[in-house]
Amino acid sequence: MQAVIDLLKEYQVDIMFTLSAICGLLALFVVITKTLVPSRKYILLSLELCAMFLLIFDILSYYYRGNTGTTGFYMVRISNFLVFALTIGIIFIFTLYLINIYIHEGKYEKPPFRLKLSCLISVIGWIMLIISQFTDFYYRFDKFNRYERTSGFAVCYLIPLIILILDMSVIIENYKRIGKLMRISILLFSIVPLISSIIQIYTYGVSLINITLVGLVVLIYIFSLLDTNKMIERANKQELEIVRQEQKNMHKLFEQTATALANAIDAKDKYTHGHSRRVAMYSVKIAKSAGKKEKECEEIYFAALLHDVGKIGIKDSIINKEGRLTDEEYGAIKTHPVIGMQILSSISQSPYLSIGAHYHHERYDGHGYPAGLKGEDIPDIARIIAVADAYDAMTSKRSYRDPIPQQLVREEFVKGLGTQFDPNYGRIMLHLIDLDSEYMMKESEDASEGDAIGTLLCGPYRTTRSDGILLNNGIVHIHLTSQMTDERNEENIPSFVLFDSLDGRIHDSERKRKDLLYHEYATIHADGIAEQAGVRNIRTKTNETAGAAAEKKTMLRGEKVDFDIEAMRYKDHALIRISNRFRFHEVIIALPDSTRFCYLSITGKNCTIDDVEVSKTGETIGSGYIPRIAEEITYIDALQGDIPNVQIDGWRSESSEGVELTDGMRISFHTMSLPTARLVWHCPFAVIYTSSDGLVNGKDYRELTVVRLDGEGWEEDDHVDNHMLVNKLDSFTNWNDFKEQNKAGQDCELLFHVKKGQIGISTEFCGLSIHSVTNVTDEIPKLFVALTGDQCAITNICIKR
C-alpha cells in the first residue's frame, strides 16, 4: 500500500495535469453536445469546469508551497482555499445532478429531502471553510509558507462524507428508478470518494480525494453520454417501430381494401365465389416457383386479386346468365380488362395493379384481347395471372358446366403451352398440378381437408353429402354430432361413402360416373354395418360399451350423439374406426388396387349432421398397421435385374435404388403401365439427384432434374438449366396408341453422357425420341440416377457401364 502511495506522490502532478486537460476537453464537448437536456448540460459543464480548476489550483498549491515571496504567500493561500471550496463544490453539483436525474428519469415531483439536506450541508461546509481562514481551524501555514493540518482538519473531511453518505442512501433506495448505466456511475461517485476520504485522513502529501473526484467526474460524463445515446437509440427504435407499425397498418388497410373490392367483384357472379382470392394464391405459387423475389410476389398477389375489377362495369344479367353467352354478351364481357385498367390506373403508387387487370386475357400466341399482344410483349405479371386464372376457371363450377377434373385440366395446359399460355409459367403450373396429389387447388363447395364442413341436413338417403376427404397414410380425424329428424327410426344415422372420382365428389348419374371415372368402394354406416360395392373384401369388428340398445334409445329421443372417426389408407387397404360413448366399430376394406384414390364423403338419412371438424395431425402409418385381409396386388413378380423391381402406384410414390451415374452408362428395363393408368404421363421417369448416402430423399438430398418418358422434363434446382428435345418417330401414331403400347409393356434403354457441368440422357420410347441436357452451374461430387414414375411397374433393371 505504501509503495502505491509513494508512486502517487511521485507522479501526482503529471496525473493532475492530464486529468485537468481531459476535464477541459470534456467541458468543450459538453458545450457542443446537442443531445443533452439543457439543465443536465449546465450541471455537467459545471462539474467538468470545477474538476479542471480543482486540479489546476491543487497543482499551484504544490508549486508555490514553501515559496516565501509575496506571490507565493498569496498563491498558496488562494490555491488551498479554492481546492477545499471546489471539492465541496463538486459534491454539491453532483447532488444537483442527482436531483435532476430523479426528477426527469425517476419521475419525482420534487427532490428527495435528503438531497435537499445535502445541499444545505454543502453551504454549511463553505461557511465553515471561510471561518477556518480566519481561525486556522482546518489548517494553517508555517513560517516557511507550508500547509499544515490543525486540530479541526477532520471536520473538513466529515462534511463531504456526510453529504456523500446522504446521497448514497438516496441512490440505494431508488436504485431501479433510473437506467443501468446512470445508476452504476452515480453509485461509484458516492462510494469511491468515501473510501478515498478515509485513506486521505491517514495520508499526507497526496491529493487522493481530488484525483478520485475528478476521475469520477470524467466517468460521470462518459456514462451520461452513453445513457443519452442509449435513450436516443431507444427513441429512434420506438420511432422506427411506430413508422413500421404505420406501414404495417397501411399495408393491412390496403390488403383489406383490395380483398373487400375483390369480394365485391366475386359477389356479382354467383358462380365465381372466391375466384379472385384463389387466382391470387395460385399466381403467388407460380411466381415463387419461378424464383420471383418476395416484393414481386406481393405485387403479383394484389394484381391477381384485383384482375377482374373491370367486371364492376358489366351488367349482372350478363355475368349471371345461365348457359353460354351470345356474341354480343361475350363482347361486353371482353371489355372488362379495359374497364379494370381505367379503374386501377388512378392508383399511381401501384401501377402493377392496372397491368394485371388490363392484360390477363392476352394469349401467348397473340390471339387474346384487348390488345392482341404476343409472347414476351405481354407483361410478366399478366402472363402469370393468365395461367392462374385459366386454372381456376377450369377447376371451378360455372353456369354451363361442372368443374373439370384436375387431370383433364392438366391435359388442357399441355395443349396450351406456347399458344394460350407462356411455356415457362404453363410448365410451372403443370408441376404444381403434379405436386398437388390431394387436389387441394380447387374451389370447394362443402369441404376439403382442413376446412370446416357446414351443417348437413340429410333427408332421403345420400341426397346431401360432403365433398370427398382424401385418405392416405396420414390419419384423418373427423368429429361430428348427429341428431335424428322428426321421422325417427334406427336407420336415421350418419353414413360414410368410400369412393374414387376425378373431382373427389360422389356422382349418381351414369354419364357423370363414366366421364369422371367414378368408382364406389363401400358405404359404412355409423352403426358399424358396411355395404360392399367395389372392393375385394370387408371385415367389421364391433366393441360394445353401453350397447346398441342404449345408443338407439338416445337417438330416438332426439338427443345429439357425438361421433369420432379415424380414417386412413395404406396402399390397397383402408381402415375406418367409428366410436361414440356407446360403441366402437372398426372396418377394414381391401380395395381393388393401390393406384386409385380413396375419398370419404359424409352423408346420412333423415338426420342433421353438425359440428363437423376434419383434421390431420401429421401422424402417418406404415406397412402392417392395417391388418391385411386380401393378398397384395403386385405387378413386379417378374425377372429381376441388377437392382430390385419397383411398382409405382401413384405419382412418384416409390423409387428404385439409386445408381451412381457415370459417363456412357446405360440402364435397360421393362416397363408396363398399371391397369388403372389412363394418362400419357402414367409412365416411367428418370430422376437425377445427389445425396450423401446415395438414397432418394436421403441425407443432403438435392434433386437436379426429372425426365419423363412421355417427353416432359422438370428441373428441381436453382443451379441447373434443363433442355428437352422430343421428336416423334415414324413409329409414333398418336397418344392413344402411346398409352396402349405402354400398357402392353415395353423394353427401354437410357443412355447417359456425363461431362463437367453437363448431364445428357437419350432414349427412344413408344415412338418418341427423347434427348435431355441438364447444365449444372456448381460442383457436385457424386451424381445418382433412380427410376420412378406414375402408375407403372418397372422390372428387370440392368446397369451397363
UniProtKB/TrEMBL annotation:
The keyword Repressor does not apply. Pfam families: HD_5. PROSITE patterns: HD, HD_GYP. SUPFAM superfamilies: HD-domain/PDEase-like. Residues 272-394 form the HD domain. The chain crosses the membrane at residues 15-32, 44-64, 84-103, 115-132, 152-172, 184-202, 208-226. Keywords: Membrane, Transmembrane, Transmembrane helix. Residues 250-445 form the HD-GYP domain. Signal peptide: none annotated. This is HD domain-containing protein. The lineage of its organism: Bacteria, Bacillati, Bacillota, Clostridia, Eubacteriales.
